[in-house]
Structures are given as C-alpha cells and as structure tokens.
Amino acid sequence: MTAALLPELPHLMIEDQVRAALIEDLGRAGDITSNATIGADRQATAGMSSREAGIIAGLPLAEAAFRLINPAINFEALVADGARVEPGAMIARISGPARGVLSAERVALNFLMHLSGIATYTARFADAIAHTKARVTCTRKTIPGLRAVEKYAVRCGGGSSHRYGLDDAILIKDNHIAVAGGITEALKAAKAFAGHLTKIEIEVDTLAQFEMVLSEGADVCLLDNMGPDMLRQAVAMNKGRITLEASGNVSLDTIRAIAETGVDFISTSKITMAAPTLDIGLDIAIS
C-alpha cells in the first residue's frame, strides 16, 4: 500500500478528534507535571520510533496533537502512513517547547499506536489472501467516535471499507427480513425506496435463500456463516451476476480457505475490534 493510494483525512475531522482527546487528557488544570518541573523557555527534541514491525497509520493525528498544544512545535514525519517498518525504525522527529511536547505525547502516541495496530493486523489478513481476488473489508463494528479514522487505518493496511454508516448503503440483515416478511418482500421494498446511486446488499445463510436473491436481484449478497464448500456452491450458482461477500467465523486461520472459494469480499470485525496496538515510543532529549 502506497501513500498515493490512500484517502486523505480532512483536517477539520482530524482536529475535532484530536482536540477532544487533548481536552480529555488536560482535564481541569492542564499538564501540572510539566508545568511544575519544566521552565516555559526550555526546548526539546524527540524521536518517535516503532519498537516492533508493522504498518504505520495515524501520523496526521499525531502531528495535530503537537500542533494544537503549541503551534511552535515542529513535527517531521519520516515515513508515510501505509509504510511497513521494522523494529527500531524512526518514524517522526519532534522539536519545540518542551512543555508542549510532553503534554501532547500521550495523545499523539495513543492515536498512532491504535491506528497502526489496526493497519498492521489488517495487513496480516490481506497478505494471507493476496493470491486471490478477494479483499478483506471492515464493518461498522468500530469504537464509537473513531469510525472514520479506524476505517482509514484499515485502508493503510491494505484492506477495504464497508459502509461508513446506516445512511450510505442498504444492508438488509436477517432481522430486517423477518420483519419485512421475507427476502423477496424486503428486496422489492428496498428497490422502491433506494435512489439510483444507493446499493442494496442482503444477508443470507442458506443456498435456498441465495437462490431467491438471484431471482429478485441485488447489488451484493452477504453469505453469512457459510463454510468453504457452501461458498463454492454459491459462487458457482452466481455465475458472476452479483458481488459476493462472505462473513462469519473469519480469522487468520480461516480467511485463506474462504478467499479461495472465489468470493469478492470477506468482512470481519476482528481487524478493527481485535487488533493489538503497535508498540511505538517517543524518546526525548532536553536541549
């Protein structure tokens, strides 16, 4: 994944996220430790490095943390989001007023470690199926308030994004089908409601249900909790007519077999909800 292929996070979105985190951390009186122990005129330089191999994501948020604390702080990214790094790799240099550098450090690292962890974990899934046409995609299972940046991190790791919210695509799940009265009824109602740019996806868990979807028509069918044999049958039945997404029981142990059935996408919440953080540190020297 190269930086040129990644979407840019809008500055206003970044600032809202980071400002809220800084306000939370500064509390009612600001950084009383730094203010108590470091003179206002002291300067500092620091290096930010990865302590393990991984994929970097979140540098714009880290930069914003230092800039919002004190615009006099200089943040120089040494790699781009989406870069693969080895243990010990330097990823950024920071210099400026020491109090501000220390006050912003934790928020900057929290964003960077969390998002780099998602990118790194996503890359493990994406690498496992790189020999197939399938792509791993995230879901709406994200930490509230962090969805946009977590989905950005998935992209940094080579994954793709499912819908961002309830308003950008129609996804008919089993409960929708139950209330609507059936697959055919739900699809007919969705088509009557949707605008011409709104895609319709529907979830099924049997081949009989999938046959009904093929008869009625949809843009995407989510094949839920189907094993590889059933997925292969669905791919054969489909004959390339609609996009197929597999989900359920997706892990690093199962994703390869799922991808090799011929499905187009494999969705999993693990890449956002179960990703460990990437260990990144900031080492500082007072000048």
Structural description of this entry:
This protein is α/β, with parallel strands linked by helices. The protein folds into two domains: 3-119 and 276-286, Alpha-Beta Complex (Aldehyde Oxidoreductase, domain 3), CATH 3.90.1170.20; 127-273, Aldolase class I (TIM Barrel, Alpha-Beta Barrel), CATH 3.20.20. The chain is built from eleven helices and twelve strands. The strands form three sheets. It has a six-stranded parallel beta sheet with strand order 6-11-10-9-8-7. It has a four-stranded antiparallel beta sheet with strand order 3-5-1-12, covered by helices on one side. α8 links the parallel β8 and β9. α1 packs across α4 and α4 packs across α5 (147-156). The two termini are 37 Å apart. 39% of the residues are buried.
- Tally of separate helices: 11
Strand order of the largest sheet: 6-11-10-9-8-7
User: Rough shape?
Assistant: elongated
Helix content: 40-55%
CATH architecture of the largest domain: Alpha-Beta Barrel
Q: Tell me the radius of gyration.
A: 23 Å
CATH class of the largest domain: Alpha Beta
Q: CATH homologous superfamily of the largest domain, by name?
A: Aldolase class I
